[in-house]
Design a protein that fits this description.
Shape: globular
Structural class: mainly alpha
Order of helices and strands: HHHHHHHHHHHHHHHHHHH
Strand content: under 5%
Largest sheet: none
Amino acid sequence: MKTETLRKIVLFQLALITIIQTSNMYIIIPNYNLIREDLGVSDFFLGSMTGAYIFLSGISSAVWSYLTEHLRLRRKWLLMLSLLVAGGFTYLVSLATNPAILFLLRILTGVFLGAVFPLSYEIIADFYENDKRTLAYMVWYIVSGIGMALGFGMSVILAVLFSWRYPIYVNSMMLIFIGSPIAGLLVEPKRALGDILSIFGSHEGLEYTYRFRLSDLKLVLTNKTNIYVAVEEFVSTLPQGVLIAWLTQYVVRELRSPEIVAMIFLGLGMLGGLFGVFIAKLADFFYSRNPRFRPLIAAISTSAQTIFLVVFLSLPIKLNIVEDDPVAAVLRFFSLMRENVLILFAVIVFFLGMVFNSSIEPIKNSVLSDVNLPEQRAIVVSAISTVELFFRSLGMALAGLISDITGSVRIMLISFTLLYLVSSMLWLRAVQVYPRDTEKIREIIKNKVNNTANGNSTG
């Protein structure tokens, strides 16, 4: 089978796994009230359980990455094991009647599902050449959004029809009987296949056999692109987390609408994220002309999303929808879109902001792939994502404080959104060092592959 065909099959398989894994994170959140009433737990308990799930999932991703690279374990079998065990824990969650046991089982699920992100990230990096990675990561990024929507939708619908336990049970079956077999059937690429193809033009007779060592940290920490991108990620995580947590409340409180209208209003704009694929294609196209275009496009996208989001948040619009009936409220919203051009303009502006927003994460993943050795990539990305969780928590706490002080969700959101301008400047700094760091890594990979071919590998 041709390499290109295998890539598409594996990317599709990883997409299905990611949808199931991401949906697991959201099968409980929409049903907090039902769980609270059934088990007699508090909001603090439920929030802490979700927070611990997310945090330990991030911590474990770094551990999974290290184990995979240091011990040189087969990634497909680790993926299969993690999905199988997570499915088992999720099934037990659907049966749990004791809050303490529910809490423990839920966070253990997060620990095992933490393997999906770094292992999938690494497989994509190995399969795709440098000038094709952004588009591949873009597809993967979009799929994560589908998983989130599936988790929310499945949770709400099945809980209404049956109980809050049923969507958890269904997800456990998906992990065990769909996710695990797909992982076992993955065609795992040769280590650094994409890099070898980019450098040598062919992979016949060529191998990359080096493992991660703690001494590699010096190379990682002295890489300026790593530093700029990591700091950029920490800065951009503040507004990103705040926007996710508070945009719905902005529409509900300040534009005055029920939650279902807020979800539709924002959902229409978030469809723009699907069109970020065109920016991802541009990033790959221009990379083949000059590598510095990749971080430059990220800088432009970051600035563009800032402008569109600030305009969206600054528009003097009110929905003033007070209908109690959900259907009547939604119909009233669509009527307002036809009557008030400013409301339609708000949806369009938010849509454009999401187009640029969605392209940044895939570009970041591509940049980090380019400036780190194959055995370092998953560990670097996992470490950045783990620290990112702290900044996301910090941002949410600060957002609540600023909202209390100013009495305005709008002012708070605009304040955080402007932090994206700092991210844009950091991307511009990365433009200066990225080509040099990329070439340095390519040269190291080339030498290591040649050493292996000559029987001089020490990896």
